[in-house]
Amino acid sequence: MHIVQEERRDRNVLAAWAIAMADVVREATEGSTGLSGSAPAALVAIVADPGLSIEELRRVLGLSHPGAVRLVDRLIERGWILRETGFGRTLRLEPTSQGREAERRLAVAREDAVATFLSELREPDVHVLAELVRPLLATTASDGVDTMRRLCRLCDRAVCEPCPAEV
Questions:
Q1: What is the rounded distance in angstroms from the CA atom of residue 100 to the CA atom of residue 123?
Q2: Structural domains of the chain ordered from first start
Q3: The whole model's pTM is what?
């Protein structure tokens, strides 16, 4: 009985830790872009996968089509992305140089916030924690590209090769 309670407590602690980490990342990315909600993730997704369609972006972010269109409009107003003609009626989303710069600032802000959040741990312990989590990422993303894109929607993909979600 005691073991079951301890396991439940461990799961509860891990869930709270995941929420705290998500809050840190959200605050850093929203703060660096001045945009809230899915906008930071949309910018990262478009920079990481130039030529993404609105439909693909919508699936990555879990938005409705009208919500994705409004979000794209906000990023265009900022000068961060462009709509370009794709196949048929499909529009491709391309980052601008200002968008790439904004994405770099976002990545640095996210990295700094996560480093601060994890600063109570020694670096070897952070490495062990990452090694423990890595297989869970691959399992989570095992059902396709859209899931991997969703999981990595705020990742700094330049530092994460090979992507643990793709391994």
A1: 30
A2: 33-159 (1.10.10.10)
A3: 0.86
**108-139 pLDDT, tens per residue?**
999 999 999 999 999 999 999 999 988 888 77
| Residue recorded with tokens 């809050």 | 23
The 10s digit of each residue's pLDDT in 71-111 is 999 999 999 999 988 777 778 999 999 999 999 999 999 99
Look up tokens 């869970």; give the residue.
Answer: 136
65 contact partners, CB below 8 Å, separation of at least 6: 54, 55, 58
Q: Which of 145, 136, 116, 130 minimizes the C-alpha distance to 52?
A: 145
Q: Please report the beta strands in the chain, taking only residues with DSSP state E, as ranges in sequence order.
A: 52-53, 81-85, 91-95
Token output for 42: 């949309």
Residue 16 to residue 125: CA distance in whole angstroms: 19
What number of CA atoms fall less than 13 Å from residue 144's CA on the CB side? 5
